[in-house]
What we know:
heterodimer, A: alpha+beta, CATH 2.40.50.140, about 30% strand, elongated, B: alpha+beta, 6-stranded antiparallel beta sheet, 5-stranded mixed beta sheet
Amino acid sequence: MAGKTKFLVAGLLIVAAVAYLIVSSTGSTARYFLTIDELRAMGQDAAGRRVTISGAVLGDTIDYDPAQPSVTFTIVQVPGDPDEVERAGGLSKVLHDAVTNPTAARLEIVYQDVKPDLLQHESQAIIRGQLRDDGRFEADEVLLKCPTKYEEGVPDQVEAP
Amino acid sequence: MLADIGSLLTGLALAATVYAASAVLWSIYRSQSDDDDARRGPGRHSERGRQWWASGRNAVFVAAALLGLAVLVLLVAFLTDQFSIQYVAQHSSRNLSPYLKGSAVWGGQAGSLLLWAFLQALFAAFVAGGSGTENRPLAHWATVFLSLITVFFVAVTLFLSNPFALGETVPADGQGLNPLLRHPGMVFHPPAMYLGYVGLAVPFALSLAALITRRIEDWPGVARRWTLVAWLFLGLGLLLGMRWAYDVLGWGGYWGWDPVENAGLMPWLTATALLHALVMQDQRGRFRWWNMILTLLSFLLVLFGTFTTRSGLIQSVHAFARSPMGPYFLGAMGASLVGSLVLFYARRSLLRTPASSDDLLTREGMFTLTLILFLTITASVFVGSVLPTLSDVLLDQRFEAGPDWFDRVTGPQLAALVLLMGVCPLLGRTARALRKLGRRALPAVFVALIVPFVAALSGFTRPFSLVGLAIVGLAAGTALSEIAQGVAGRRRQGEGLATAFWSLFGHNRRRYGGYLVHLGVILLAVGVIGTRFYAFETEAVVTAGDSVQVEGYTLLFEGLDRVALADRTGTSASVAVYRGRTYLRTLNPTLEEYSSFGQTIATPAVLAALREDLYLVLAGWTGGGAQVTLKIFINPLASFLWLGGLVFLAGGAIAVWPSARGARLPVAEMRRRRQWSAAGLITGVALLALAVWAMWGATQGTGASSSPSGSLAPATSSAPAGRPAVGDPAPAFRASMLDASRLRLSDLRGPVAVINFWSPVYRPCKDELPALQAVWEEYQAQGVAFVGISVPHLADDANAMITDFGITYPNALDLATPAQYGITGVPETFLIDPDGNVAYVHIGPLTAQLLEEKLAAVLAQ
């Protein structure tokens, strides 16, 4: 085999292997990224699927039992598309509108873990987990983003998994 | 007032950079036409071009100085609480300590962009001022491009995100700095990252300059050190970020594959590849295309990272709020990409590499595969970061890549990369050298077998992790044997061992600094393997005075302390950590409630040792502090991450250190060059030292220090404590004294120590007290130490008893020590000899006569 061809074959093999890794990992470990409305629209299909869901936190519903530890709270539908958020007046406004809108879709979250630092009223929650049969959402991981105080103040990691 | 000055300075800097770019461009045009004139005869114009260049260069210096002043003005505004400036009001408050006010300068978007613009201008000034005669055309063009890049950043700062903008109202106090950023690591992490980012603009500018001036052979030599500096700072920034995440965020990890972390990692990966490829081109003239593409990619990824964190494209908790500057960054990326590609095409003949006999199994062949791997890893991280957007467009479904996804996709590729790191140096330049491979590879293969073997013996037995460790061992063996061979070669020339080391690293900094960097990466890899394969996490609810057993540790919760500070309330749990019977340390995981932010920050406490870190987080408490919830993480081999980081930085610093070679330059040139490199060097070393202090020195108090008892190595026995037999080492206790002090076994100095376990409510103990006091009075002068340790009871009872019987030796009320000594009842008495071993144990009440007898026997030894 000529030198060039060898390199081409070796390079292509690496690229193909990586492409396979990406595709197979996307199938097995990537999660659907959904809003509450989209989760509801999936109906029965959603049960047991690993998904990531986002919404606005309702402060009054936060119930923390440090002895377990376990925290439950309810989140409210917010649009997932950044452009839509922008059109509606920015993230802070969208979050505020969501928690004051009684007709927006809601979802109860159960998180068997320590209450995250940033879990508070009107913060944006990005939650990884799955929908249980009882209609509650069991969270494996909760990421939070604070809406008002210093939304541009954090140049780097705020809260990791 | 300050705001006006700041805006004015930034505005002037914008004008100066625009002028600089134009003047230098004009000077290039003039000297070219002068060259044409010169061919027709000696012209008077040749001075003109030089004058324009000098003027443009001065404008670059002025711009850097103006932006430096602007940063200073912002600093002064922070230090003097100028809350009329909106940015100051949003990121500072009166009660913040001065050093945090200083770091708040880059605590938000506007200030960090100003800093970025300043550093970019500074690097442009270094390139313009440090350019030698030999590469003048390169430096002139590079100055043009760097000035244009600076223009972009200054303009974005001034028009889209001006840190000096005034607020509508002047608040009485600022909103304060985000509590999470109040950490020494966060003081240095952003500037280190920005230094890396702006540094990567220099090779980009040089590569374009090389294409335009057709000096394709010259640019790798010039660009190499800039790339190295940028890459080193980027690496430092990433390490500081990891350390900060570990010390502050309290989730037990250091890398979460968050899009913003990835945005910093991707240019570092391409810069690493570039660094290697530049050396190859410099030495052998190969890899020209690779270098162009890697330089362009590194620069684009810097812009991309800035773009994603500010555009709202990526849903990340780390991202800045969506801001209007996204499209501008996209535009800058587009312009750089299209401009570069057009230039690549126009100069494609220059990029053709001289033909050579390619073979895969040579150093160069494997090296090509390494570069491909760097690109595929970068591409994987990129795909993962934008997967939601990508899958939305391609599949009309939004997928999201979590840490699992990244681990699965990049893990095998990173392992392959480390493998190549071990294999490449073993291969020869031609395929024929393969015959010698066996002998060369022997030491590396040996280490590759030893490492997993030792790991398996130490209890690390997962098959995949052992494969990983074998690969790591191979790479370590290669790097070590290369260094050893170099040293041996020098020793054969009659140098001593220390001299051989010194001169080896001194004379070939690039190569051996590089091997040291490899060793650093290898140590990091060990840390990654340990923490990814063997991390353990659990939660426990503990009542005060109770203990919990986790993985061989006994954690005794002693109590909760609350401290109210100006802007926050700190609640810290006191948790005494024992391994078997040995007291290690008391950890104080803390919850800090910031009332003004409505935010609670859990600050972890870490007991770090070589084998594993014990990482505690206070999750909450109930019953007024009688019960706490602890998150307990065991992170095996986590120390290797920071150890590897230090070795990595040391190796990088050696490689970057300017060498004394190239002495054939004119004297004036040499001196100027030395001045510039000395200035750069001093700045760099000072920054590095500060940063290293911030991470590994400043946090000593909270986590990284070794234990006072000095026995952090895994204890041989983690079995429940029984009563130590005569001749056994006495358990190293740490008792809470009745006067609220602490007493350790090591505090009991003297020829012999008497430890009496008692209870104030139990009759035989009371009967025994007068005898103990009598013996104490008699033997005190001989240095005999006495301590009474009461098993838990009301302190009042114990104190009453001590007063009643006139006891004068120290007494403790303690839970843990009786358990450590495995007592089965009270009273029990232990005699400890000067070596710290148990000399005598008595169960039940003692008489004065018996105690004196036993004391005398020990003293007589």
